[in-house]
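Morning. Coffee machine broken again, so started the prediction first thing and wrote up yesterday's gels while waiting. Chain of 182 residues, entered below exactly as on the submission form.
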Amino acid sequence: MRLSPEAVDPAGAHERGLWGTGPDEGVHSALSRVQGMVGHEGVLTAAPAGGRTPAERQALVPWGDRPLVARDPRRPWPGVLPPPAPSMVYELPRGIGVEDPAGKPVTVDERGALSGPPAVMVSPTGARRDLTAWAGPWPLDERWWDAEAARSVNRFQAVDSEGVAWLLVLDGGGWWAEGRYD
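Came back before lunch.
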């Protein structure tokens, strides 16, 4: 079950109830009731966590529980992206293509040099979006000492012609949209 707000109002726009009840108590009551119907793990809230990727930097905690996060977000995380963080992180990254102005796929060599500037983002359906600005790559080499768990990716921030900003990742020769900035 997913709850999606249809409108968001500032908390200050709502008056306290006649007997001291307010919007916070109503939200808690409603979510606790839903949690009683779908189970303790059925209603989750996000808590900050430590990690190098945007997906690692969030932990889902059951509603009403105190966040007990294994990865401390206050510790240094070498390889973390510079701020700001994407406002939307996809649960599963979306496969895309990134091409240079000549229409060739953009690659990054072992020294971090690009084969050409990212100019076009191509969706799996073939829809094309021109890229008007980009920054990166920010390389991330994880577990280089463990051949089975090693991962080497290059991350980019890009803005398309519609003004939408993206977090793009080149991983294993394939491009992925990992998140979006709103």
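The first helix runs from residue 23 to 38. Going to sketch it on the whiteboard this afternoon.
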